[in-house]
Amino acid sequence: MSNNLIAVYGEVPELIRKFSNEKVEAYLDEPKDDFNFVKFDLYHTEITQCIEEALTLPFLSDKKVVLIQNAFVFTGEKAPKDVNHNLQQLMEFIEKYDDHTLVIFEIYNQKLDERKKLVKTLKKHATLKKIDQMTEEEMKAWIKRYLNDHYKDIKQDALDLLIELTGIHYNIIKQELEKLMLFLGDNPTITKRDVSQIVSRSLEQNVFLLTEYIQKGKKEKANHLVKDLVYMKEEPIKLLALITSNYRLFYQCKILSQKGYSGQQIAKTVSVHPYRVKLALGQARKYDLETLLKIMDSCVETDYKLKSSYMDKVLILELFILSL
Asked: What residue numbers bound the domain in which 219 lies?
């Protein structure tokens, strides 16, 4: 495995770039210039050119860095029409790389495509670093910085509502901020009313709201929400899978919290974002373990009905909710 061949991936480009900059500064031990630092973007440059640069010895410098951004070839993302990458050449380069230049691939995606031979080769020969999502507080700080860069600010209650509606998802939040700024025009401040008018609740947050309605006995509201989600083209089978995932998380959080685990420790143990654990703990406290097990059993039975019954799938899901 090569220490000078690094693939860094995750959903937040800003955090990935921060990691890369730290690696570059530590490696070069001198300011970046045109001789010791070269940057490419695989959306616009063919991989052959990147490889040729990586294999060229440094000129007027002891060390060199080649940074390759938007390295989507390691994910399931489709290639832009005007760029044709020689993936066989890239695979051979990774296998035979001799370490004389620091090469960093920046992959702006939460997952690598494990089915690809290219990814298997990368995992075998390169150093991989996954950059986790921001915490809730880090995300709020980033939102304020992002808006400040665009000469805007946001009231605290509006910021709290934005997080409640979107969850801690960088890409979703960035899209919603762009919508909000377009809506604001020349107005400098985002209010809670602006957020409630413009921002859409994410599917993940809708499912948390759905389980909250169920927990509070608001079955009619829960079924109205199901109909709204189905109207937005969400499949009942997918909705049930997300509901099941929530109750499984409630069960895990309940057990681990009883053992004295903190929210952060639970998040690390079950590999879930701390914000999701925070929401799950809030609902899990209202249940006992036996009830959660019964609900999960009911989820399994409903899943079987959805896949095998000729009944209307939305009706099956509504009856499931009414039975809880």
From this structure: 203-323
